[in-house]
Design goal:
Layout: H1 2-7, E1 38-40, H2 46-55, H3 62-67, H4 69-77, E2 79-81, H5 89-94, H6 97-101, H7 106-123, E3 131-133, H8 150-158, H9 167-177, E4 182-184, H10 194-202, E5 206-209, H11 216-229, E6 233-243, H12 245-251, H13 254-265, H14 267-272, E7 277-284, E8 291-301, E9 307-317, H15 318-338, E10 343-344, H16 363-380
Parallel strand pairs: 1-2, 3-4, 4-5, 5-10, 6-7
Antiparallel strand pairs: 6-8, 8-9
The chain binds nicotinamide-adenine-dinucleotide (NAD).
Nicotinamide-adenine-dinucleotide (NAD) binds near residues 137, 187, 260 and 318.
């Protein structure tokens, strides 16, 4: 909705990092040049979801949805059946009967997904295709030596080892194998497997992940440096999250929740330089729909050992926070691919809770990586 509304001049680009003046030196692709397609395992469709967001969640103006209705219908026609085997119990319950009944092998699915990408590129006459994983969170998969090289990962696919090849890793494989950039906005495994990074390097494709940083964790990575640079010792940092929507429903399953808790939990240690007592809880409250509330309690010690606290409440609309970042990532990834960059896009660390290959967790320091990238490219690439 947002991308099409901006393309039609119906909405302003607030919330988009790529529309900040600091990023203007990069010749990023225009919103009107983007064409959307995808896969889903549910048959609900974008238009239906957008209307729900307008009527039930009051997150979008109904007039805005109506104004881009034709565009959403056209995109819905380009949404192909996804692959859900091995994606966990909660994802199975979202999947349409047709997707659940499909007994497709991993090898056949990898071929089909790759063919979908090639066809999408040809039919829409695109210069490139950027694959972004925005699917429900999968359970954690146990990584072993078979995930270490692309040859052994290909054997897992060939032997249909569905417990060792999560759908997010198969989508990543399909993209990178066909030479398309890949970004993982979710806590699922995706391109975090060394085997897939090897494939990305081999095919000279840019990639990155994982788990978009949109709410509570964003606040943590902004506030933690405050305690560090004022030499205030954080004793405990407890975060309590309640959310509704599809994400909340999937995360209510403990198998799926584990992935999210992992990507949220690594932040404080590296931002503070030590590990305070910390806990993160995530509870599903169906009536909240697309809205989410996080309450964080930070207990810290100051001069002469005096204990104090900071508490904050974050109330956000999940999709409204995530969508502009997904668009930013598409534009920045398209640009990286256009100028033939490949490998992990470390300059995108500020967008992620668990940024690949970057140990820095302070948000402003991560943002400097992006500014440095802009600076280098502004000097190198003629506008
Ligand atoms: N603020 C945010 O919304 C935010 C922030 C960071 C990360 N994320 C992550 O983004 C993901 C999506 O979140 P959401 O709130 O949009 O969830 P959602 O439930 O609204 O949408 C998920 C979509 O993925 C589809 N899906 C599930 N398994 C699939 C598969 N194997 N193949 C293709 N499609 C599949 C579902 O049918 C659904 O349409 C989650 O992993 C979430 O943790 C979201």
């Amino acid at each position: 909705v947002g991308a099409r509304a901006i393309a039609h001049g119906l909405a302003k680009p607030s919330g988009l990092v790529t529309c900040l003046p600091e990023l203007s030196p990069l010749p990023l692709i225009g919103f009107d040049q983007l064409v959307f397609g995808g896969w889903d395992v549910s048959s609900a469709g974008l238009l239906h979801r957008a209307r729900d967001m307008a009527t039930d969640d009051r997150a979008l103006g109904a007039g805005l949805v109506a104004a881009v209705e034709d565009d959403l219908r056209a995109i819905d026609l380009r949404i192909r059946p996804g692959f859900a085997r091995g994606g966990g119990p909660a994802t199975q319950s979202l999947a349409s009967r047709a997707v659940r009944r499909r007994r497709e092998t991993l090898e056949a699915a990898a071929q089909r997904l790759g063919d979908d990408l090639d066809r999408f590129r040809e039919e829409q006459r695109l210069s490139n295709v950027v694959v972004v994983n925005l699917a429900s969170t999968e359970p954690v998969i146990a990584l072993g030596p078979e995930h270490a090289s692309i040859d052994s990962f290909r054997r897992l696919i060939h032997n249909d080892r569905v417990t060792q090849v999560a759908p997010s890793t198969l989508y990543a494989y399909a993209a990178l194998d066909r030479g398309y950039p890949y970004v993982n906005f979710t806590p699922s495994a995706g391109v975090s497997l060394p085997a897939l990074q090897e494939l990305g390097h081999k095919n000279q494709v840019p990639f990155y992940g994982k788990d978009g940083k949109t709410g509570e964790t964003l606040m943590k990575t902004v506030l933690a440096p405050l305690f560090r640079y004022r030499n205030l010792e954080v004793l405990s940092w407890e975060g309590f999250n309640i959310l509704g929507g599809g994400d909340g429903r999937v995360l209510a399953d403990p198998n799926h929740k584990q992935s999210k808790l992992r990507s949220k939990s690594g932040v404080l240690q590296s931002a503070l330089g030590y590990n305070p007592h910390t806990g993160v809880s995530i509870e599903y409250v169906p009536s909240l729909g697309n809205w989410k509330t996080a309450w964080d309690y930070v207990h810290f010690r100051g001069f002469l050992g005096t204990k104090m606290s900071v508490q904050f409440i974050w109330q956000g609309c999940d999709s409204i926070l995530a969508a502009p970042l997904a668009l930013d990532l598409i534009r920045l990834t398209e640009y990286a691919a256009r100028i033939n960059e490949s490998g992990p896009m470390r300059h995108l660390a500020c967008f992620f809770k668990d940024p690949m290959d970057v140990k820095i967790q302070s948000f402003t320091e991560q943002f400097s990586l992006l500014l440095d990238y802009v600076d280098t490219h502004a000097r190198r690439v003629p506008r």
